[in-house]
């Protein structure tokens, strides 16, 4: 099975453009890698788990949740500390801090078996979207997961931006 990986965050999209971007990229499997599957505020309510899953089902896009790929609270706190030190708002972040990257690799990616994700996919899977919230992939752990998958399986990765 040769698949393509796309990454997408919710910030910067409205509901219509978010789902249109998934359709334009021909996503057939949506992999939610958030540890907490809710987003605060009415603007992004469509990305809350139940609403998101219902809309994806309407579009014929399979949904899987890989909580094991979501950063733990301790890992998130490393990024929060880096953001505080640089006075960067979460939604304005353009890169991950080194402490976050190191902790995420140690706590999440070390135990991650990339083949386990591929084994979870249906045999007709062509395009998998790795999803979290940040706009810039470089500011989100989804880029670390995508990089791991790309290197392990020699896969193409495309970042979908608003």
Write up this protein:
It is globular and about 45 Å long. The protein has one domain (4-160). The protein is of the alpha/beta class and 162 residues long. The protein contains six helices and five strands; from the N terminus they run βαβαβαααβαβ. The two termini are 29 Å apart. The protein has a five-stranded parallel beta sheet, with helices on both faces. It has helices at 15-24, 49-58, 73-86, 98-109, 114-120, 142-153; strands at residues 4-8, 29-32, 62-65, 127-131, 156-160.
Number of separate domains: 1
Shape: globular
Please, what is the average pLDDT? Answer: 94
Beta content comes to: 5-15%
Describe the strand arrangement of the main beta sheet, using strand numbers: 3-2-4-1-5
Question: What order do the helices and strands follow?
Answer: EHEHEHHHEHE
Tally of DSSP β-strands: 5
- Give the helix proportion (percent range): 40-55%
Which regions have little confidence, pLDDT < 50, spanning 5+ residues? none
Tell me the distance between the termini.
Answer: 29 Å
This entry's quaternary arrangement is: single chain
Count every helix, treating DSSP H or I runs of 4 or more residues as helices: 6
> Nearest-angstrom radius of gyration?
15 Å
| Class based on secondary structure composition and strand pairing | alpha/beta
- Mind describing the biggest β-sheet? 5 strands, parallel
């Amino acid at each position: 099975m040769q698949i393509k990986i796309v990454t997408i965050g919710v910030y910067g999209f409205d509901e219509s453009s978010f789902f249109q971007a998934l359709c334009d990229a021909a996503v057939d499997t949506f992999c939610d890698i958030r540890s907490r599957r809710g987003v605060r505020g009415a603007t992004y309510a469509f990305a809350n788990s139940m609403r998101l899953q219902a809309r994806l089902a309407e579009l014929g896009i399979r949904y899987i949740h890989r909580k094991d790929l979501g950063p733990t609270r301790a890992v998130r706190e490393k990024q929060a500390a880096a953001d505080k030190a640089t006075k960067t708002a979460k939604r304005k972040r353009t890169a991950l801090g080194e402490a976050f990257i190191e902790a995420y690799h140690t706590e999440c990616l070390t135990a991650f078996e990339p083949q386990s994700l591929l084994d979870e996919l249906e045999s007709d899977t062509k395009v998998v979207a790795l999803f979290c919230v940040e706009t810039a992939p470089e500011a989100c752990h989804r880029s670390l997961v995508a990089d791991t998958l790309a290197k392990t399986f020699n896969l193409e990765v495309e970042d979908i931006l608003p």
